Fold this sequence. Notes:
- This protein has 109 residues and is an all-alpha fold.
- The chain has one domain: Serine Threonine Protein Phosphatase 5, Tetratricopeptide repeat (Alpha Horseshoe).
- The chain has helices spanning 4-20, 24-36, 55-70, 75-88, 95-104.
- It is globular, with a radius of gyration of 14 Å.
Amino acid sequence: MVGSSSFARSHLDLGRAYLQANASADADSELDTCLKRRGEATSLFLDEIPTVRSLPEVYYYKGRASEGLVGARSPAALEWYKKFLAIKHESQTDPLVESARRQVGETSK
């Protein structure tokens, strides 16, 4: 039986694959599914994959999908990047953090 967090992670992985294929609308749909099912990510004791750690990553990729749908530096994309950075702001080595900072015009802290 596939655990609920495995299911949510598969939507994140599909969203990322769609982004790589320049299919922003499909990516956005998969990432929306992740967000709708984010409550399942807290059920860490029901299966072995702790997906609550993936939530910031979903925010980052929602920003990427928004850029593909609306355009770079769109207000929607910037809001997703800001949500991501609000959680991951202390990271100095995460390439997603560096990318999000560039998108919102922040310098490394």
